[in-house]
Amino acid sequence: MVPYLFLAPALVGTIAFKLYPIFIGFWESLIYTSFSGGAEKRIFVWFENYQYLFDDKIFWKSLEITAFLTIIINPLQIAMSLGLALLLMRKSKFIRVIRSLYLLPIGIALPIATIIWGLMLDPNQGLINGLIGVFGIPPQPFLVSENQALWCIIAIATWKGVAFWMLFLLAGLEDIPKQYYEAAEIDGATPFQKFRYVTIPQLKRTILFVFVADTAANFVLMVPMIILTKGGPLQSTNVLIYEGYRSGFYYQDWGRSLSIITILTVITLIVIGLQLLFLSEKNEGIKVK
Amino acid sequence: MKKILASLCTIFLFSNLVTSAKAEINFLIGTWAEEPLTPFVEAFEKETGIEVNIQTFPFRDLLATIEVRGNAQADDVDVIFVDAPLVPSYAVRGMIGPMDQYFADTSINSIFAPAGIAAASWNGEMYAPPLNNSGQLTYYNKDLLAKAGCAEPSMIEAERVTWEEIVDCAKKITDEANGIHGFIFDQISRYYQLQALPESAGGGSGVCEGGLSVKGCLTNDGWMKAGQFYYDIHNTSNISPKGVGPDQTHELFGLGKIGIFVGGSWNNGRWADTDLNYGVALHPYFEGGKVVTGCNSWHIGVWNYSKQKDDAAKLVRYLTASPEIAIHYVESHNSLPAHNSAILHVAEDPKFNNFPGIVMNLATYESANHCATRGRTPGFLEFEEIVNTSFEDIRNGGDPASVLADAESRIESSMRRYK
Q1: Are A40 and B179 inside 8 Å of each other by CB?
Q2: Cβ separation of B398 and A231 shorter than 8 Å?
Q3: A15 with A135, same domain?
Q4: Which residue of A has its CA nearest to B212?
Q5: What are phi and psi of B185, to 5 degrees?
Q6: Are B274 and B252 in contact (CB under 8 A)?
Q7: Within this chain, do residues B29 and B171 fall inside the same structural domain, yes or no?
Q8: Which pLDDT score, from 0 to 100, does residue B19 have?
């Protein structure tokens, strides 16, 4: 009984601040608000809001963009975080200074970073076009191009996120016993083999955590869309979370908004469930030889 | 010591009682209105003893805040700024209440111009009296036009410039290598200003009669012509720059980087301290089309969930019905008046007959004679947002026909809530 009492505050918090809002969100997604005849009416419509959503090509386009973003941004951020963490594990006189420099983006709030990047990516007066112009590359439209805007957002979010996720991986790397590397060296392992057969298996739990947390964070990434692109150009950055936000806060269509958010919650849970299934310790994808 | 403590407690309690007895109302306004309105709000506080807590927001945040507070039916808001075309939306959803009873002792026709009353009303009742009006004009850089060999656009109705002439001239001015463009809209990709294009081409406001549908009204020939025009100036002739926001356009014109700038009267004061050699002319129209300009502006309404509606209404009436405030708003803000006394002031004061003051006179003329009231629909919030996004997509290279068809279908779907 005592352990349950200790767990109770956390459980109450989880129910009040996580499960209850999810339930309310789902419940409200079954409600249709009508202003027909000049009076507000709330009508319980079962899954009609979802039906409208599935007939709406904006929703499908938004889902497609969310899927594309997820497939690109999560592996990219984890690979870059891991690469940086490995670089920062190297012995150097200036390692503390270098580590601090890499950690700087964490200290800058995402909205501020987004605004600064927005100024740098300005197609007319931005720094980036000035820099690439030095190499003879013509000015790029960046955030006003249907083909480049999402990549710009991926770059901004990665610049901001990599250092944060690197911290966890760095801590994981520090935890790997040195003897494993020494033993591998005695066996004549190459640097790649040490990475493949020592670092990766030992870092697996940390990578799993980072993968899950990063995926969840990127599913709700919308600050750059709010500040820079408003989901455009031509809906090219209109991810599900932004479409849900826009439906609720701009169009006041809360039934549609919460249907989208509920679907996004389900997708997030499924993706994270799959990640846990395939990457957890029970499923030995990578064996130490 | 005990006596001192007891005295302090008594003073504290007493002061709290006094404070709580004082009426306090919360007023949500746009950041741009804080400076001109604050002295009058302070005068109102002194006169009535009602404390006014002004909360300012940028344009888009103001609308979002009002929506969030409305959805929560919050009673900590008492008075709000209302964008003219949102009057039906707020009225239908019960966010603002009718104001006629607070003007029962006077004739509103004697205070406000008819267009302002029309914009303030829904179903025959006045919901939010107008604070000001707006009008659009053509500003041009005399040096750039002379260098390109263009004739200056005119202030005379019979010689009003056409969009075709604007494009011809802007092509000659444009020098992309040096960052100079021939033309720019003040309110880039905003329905408020761009509505004049489809209206001039005979396409109407985009909202069908009755205000509950857009089917066929956003994809008619007029809207297609307007969409193609907007596409061409940014993607074919490239006379207008991409990637510039509405907040930057007047700065570019002020820096001499733009040949022709079509924008609101409020811009006039912005270039007073620059060396810009500029002139002003009437708003353009499509050759053979209708002469139309954007108009209407901000209104003030009483929040329907307020617990202090009478005090709130006093503030609304004080700010909108006072001739002094209306005239001050014209003088300090270059905003067109909605108040009859201020309209008369602009007509009679000689300074408004000469440049740069004539901007106010021309804008008043445009607004009075060629005003295109924005689409009247309870779904204006959704309509405007989707239309704005569509214009931005066209500007960024989207095919006008498919972008407008998408917008029509999306708006039609959102309108089902009001049918």
Answers
A1: no
A2: no
A3: no
A4: A36
A5: -85, 145
A6: no
A7: no
A8: 47
Domain containing B58 equals: 2-133+296-361
Based on the fold, state whether residues B149 and B267 are members of the same structural domain: yes
Give all strands of the β-sheet with B79-83 in edge-to-edge order. B51-57, B24-30, B79-83, B298-302
User: Does A149 fall in a domain?
Assistant: yes
Q: Which domain holds residue A40?
A: 1-46
In B, what residues contact A, Cβ < 8 A?
Answer: 64, 67-68, 71, 92-94, 123, 179, 241-244, 378, 381-382, 385, 389, 392-393, 395-398, 403, 406, 410, 413-414, 417-419
φ/ψ of residue B246, rounded to 5: -60, -25
Claim to verify: residue A24 and residue A65 sit in the same structural domain: no
ipTM (interface pTM):
0.78
**Yes or no, beta carbons of A36 and B419 under 8 Å apart:** yes
pLDDT in tens, A13-61: 999 999 999 999 999 999 998 887 667 788 999 999 999 999 988 999 9
A134 domain residue, yes or no: yes
Whole-structure pTM value:
0.84
Q: Which residue of A has its CA nearest to B386?
A: A251
> B347-380 burial by CB neighbour count: b if 16+ within 10 A, else e?
eeeeebeeebbbbbbbbbbbbbebbbbbbbbbbb
Of B123, B241, B381, the CB nearest to A251: B381
Q: Answer yes or no: do B123 and A38 touch at CB < 8 A.
A: yes
User: Does residue A287 lie within any of the structural domains?
Assistant: no
Contact criterion met (CB below 8 Å) for B191 and B199 = no
* Structure-block tokens of residue A155: 């770059």
CB contact at 8 A, B207 and B377: yes
